[in-house]
Structures are given as structure tokens and as C-alpha cells.
Recover the amino acids of this structure.
């Protein structure tokens, strides 16, 4: 009996959701449709052993007392313990190369540098590799322990800091400034933005409201300024080099520099900005047949957890249709939310935001995100309970 190996690369929100949905719904449907002609196995390749709820990073880094890191990092293997080894395999390692002719992926262990690499064959490939940030605070650069160390280092530095500079006028930078200002009002906190306003995905009036809230909390906001270089000054502080000036601060936090994790893929599969080509935004089919893309590394993506969660069911319905040659189910087109939608906490009591084009009052931002950064949904992401229903 032929084994059809469905391989997913990446085990954050996109990879985990897709893996659970395929195992719970898609593969059983394919087994019924194709009978004894073939059997399906899912292989999930993850560079890290733990899922990281990076949405909550601004609060995690501010203090160990607000949300314990044990709730932010959960073992991926535990979420898949109910599946049979004949149907599922978790491979811990970083994909370092891919041969699209032989349909193979070379994986290197991210926890043991002395171990040999492994080659994995795929029949169907799903790219859910996500994106990495300049700082390990926002994404896991291999071992999750690196991100835990970065969070703990920031937590330790803040109580004794007199000056903090945060680079990045997007949600991560704004949220971090709000968390630090709320917890440490005596710190001189500065937020710099590389453009003429904060939160460019939201309308100017909401951007202005965010800046007004930060200013009321004592945060200094500087626009049209970018960091050129960062140099440790040897005394525990950091020297920040700007185009025409420099400054020394006690704590520097970079909230910029998001790049898709696609360096190992063939160049012909990528856009000019190195995102995975998706031939259309309704099926999520990738650059060639048998390859699909979902999440922050995909060319269609607008970023964010909502964009990912909305795409899981449509993607899996496309895969079901393709692998069953149209015998099972009907593809459900992905309907992307393109209207203004973004929630940005500014401290623990509220924030700014919009949902589907409707501006949200601060207390709604608090109810949905600001009070606990949605930490309650983390176990369901890892165990697949979010996609228990087809």
C-alpha cells in the first residue's frame, strides 16, 4: 500500500491548526474515499519543541508576575499524543534545504548541533514557516530556550532601568511601550517610528488616539527615525546609532525587522520580497501543484492570528479536493478579511483598535485582548480543540 506523506513545515499558529484539521477531518475523509489504494501520513517539521504564544510578548517581557511563561510556552508533542504513530510524526529540526525535483527536505536538529541531518520525502507539502523578527522576543530562532532567556533578561533589566528605547511603530512596539509605561511609570520610555505615524494599518485618527494614550502615560513618541546600528557600551547599557545622532539607554527593545522564513526554498517559489507565491487567495495553492502556503510566510497573508485561523479550513478543503480528485467535498474559498481589523492594547486597561472597519472603544479592546493577551486560547491551539469541528 502506497504511503502519501503530507509534510507541514512550521508549527506555530498556522502549522498547528492545519495539522490538527488534516488529522481530524481531512485524512479520515481521504481514507474513506480512496479505500485501500493508499494510506496517508502527516509529518510536522518544527524547529522548536514548544509553541510560543508570541501575541502576548509585550506583557511577558514586562514582568514575570503578570503572565507566567509556563502558560506562554507549551510542548508541541503533548498536543499530538492522541494520534497514532502510523498517521503522525513530529520532527524537531530546521528545514535547511529542499529539492523540488526529488521532493525531499533536509532537516537539521536545532537542539543538538552535533547530530546529523535528516532527509524527509513529501508527497504533498504545506509551507507554514512563518516569519522571524530581529529580536528573539517576538519569535523563536531555533530553540525556544533562546526566547525564554531573552524575555527573562528584559524582565530582570526593567526594574533597575531609568531609560528604555523601543524601535518600531507597529503593534508590537506600541503594546510594549504601553506595558512598560503602565508598570514602570518612572522610566523614561521612548518609542520611535520609522514613518510619520504609529500603526499604519489603522486609520490616522486611531493612530493619533494611540499616540495620545501613550503620551498621557509618559511615553515620548518620535517619528521618521530609524536605528542604523546598536552597540553595547560595555557597562550594561546600549548605544543606539541614528543617521544624525546617537543615544545611550539602559534597555533597548527592537520591535522591527520581520522577514519570512523561506531562505531554504527554491527562488522560483518566492515573490520579490521572499514570500511564498500563492496562485490565488481563495484556494491557497502554492507556486506549483502539490505545494500550499498558509500564514505569515505566504504571499497572500496580511499577518495576524485572525488571518491565519480564517485560512485553515479553506486550505484543508482545497487539499481534500485535490487529493481526492474532486470525489470528496467541495473546496471552500478563503474569504480574507481586508477591512480594517487590528486590536492594540496600550497597557492593561484598554487600547485602540478596529474590527471589520468599525472603530472599537477602549473597553472592548480590553475585553478581547488587553486583559490577558488571549492566553486562554493557547492550550486549544496546541491540542487542536479550536478545530475540533470541521
Amino acid at each position: 500500500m502506497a504511503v502519501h506523506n503530507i509534510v507541514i513545515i512550521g508549527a506555530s499558529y498556522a502549522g498547528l491548526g492545519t495539522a490538527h484539521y488534516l488529522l481530524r477531518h481531512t485524512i479520515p475523509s481521504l481514507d474513506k474515499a480512496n479505500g485501500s489504494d493508499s494510506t496517508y501520513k502527516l509529518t510536522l517539521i518544527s524547529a522548536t519543541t514548544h509553541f510560543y504564544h508570541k501575541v502576548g510578548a509585550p506583557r511577558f517581557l514586562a514582568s514575570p508576575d503578570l503572565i507566567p511563561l509556563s502558560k506562554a510556552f507549551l510542548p508541541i508533542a503533548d498536543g499530538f499524543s492522541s494520534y497514532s504513530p502510523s498517521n503522525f510524526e513530529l520532527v524537531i529540526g530546521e528545514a535547511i534545504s529542499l529539492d523540488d525535483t526529488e521532493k525531499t527536505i533536509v532537516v537539521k536538529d536545532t537542539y543538538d548541533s552535533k547530530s546529523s541531518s535528516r532527509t524527509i520525502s513529501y508527497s504533498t507539502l504545506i509551507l507554514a514557516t512563518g516569519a522571524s523578527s530581529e529580536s528573539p522576543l517576538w519569535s523563536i530562532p531555533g530553540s525556544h530556550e533562546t526566547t525564554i532567556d531573552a524575555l527573562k533578561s528584559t524582565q530582570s533589566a526593567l526594574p533597575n532601568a531609568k531609560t528604555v528605547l523601543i524601535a518600531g511603530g507597529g503593534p508590537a512596539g506600541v503594546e510594549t511601550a504601553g506595558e512598560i509605561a503602565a508598570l514602570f511609570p518612572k522610566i523614561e520610555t521612548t518609542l520611535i517610528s520609522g514613518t510619520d505615524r504609529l500603526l499604519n494599518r489603522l486609520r490616522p485618527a486611531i493612530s493619533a488616539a494611540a499616540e495620545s494614550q501613550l503620551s498621557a502615560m509618559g511615553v515620548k513618541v518620535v517619528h521618521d527615525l530609524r536605528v542604523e546600528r546598536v552597540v553595547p557600551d560595555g557597562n550594561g547599557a546600549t548605544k543606539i546609532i541614528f543617521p544624525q545622532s546617537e543615544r545611550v539607554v539602559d534597555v533597548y527593545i527592537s520591535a522591527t525587522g520581520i522577514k519570512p522564513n523561506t531562505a531554504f526554498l527554491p527562488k522560483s517559489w518566492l515573490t520579490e520580497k521572499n514570500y511564498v507565491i500563492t496562485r490565488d487567495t481563495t484556494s491557497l495553492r502554492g507556486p506549483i501543484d502539490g505545494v500550499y502556503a498558509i500564514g505569515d510566510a505566504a504571499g497572500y497573508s496580511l499577518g495576524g492570528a485572525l488571518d491565519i485561523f480564517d485560512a485553515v479550513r479553506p486550505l484543508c478543503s482545497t487539499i481534500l479536493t485535490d487529493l481526492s480528485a474532486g470525489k470528496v467535498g467541495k473546496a471552500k474559498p478563503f474569504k480574507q478579511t481586508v477591512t480594517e481589523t487590528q486590536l492594540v492594547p496600550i497597557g492593561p486597561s484598554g487600547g485602540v483598535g478596529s474590527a471589520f472597519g468599525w472603530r472599537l472603544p477602549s473597553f472592548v479592546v480590553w475585553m478581547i485582548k488587553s486583559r490577558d493577551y488571549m492566553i486562554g486560547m493557547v492550550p486549544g491551539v496546541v491540542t487542536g480543540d479550536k478545530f475540533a469541528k470541521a
Q: What stands out?
A: The CA atoms of residues 59 and 66 lie 7 Å apart. The radius of gyration is 22 Å. The longest strand covers residues 38-46. The chain has a mean pLDDT of 95.
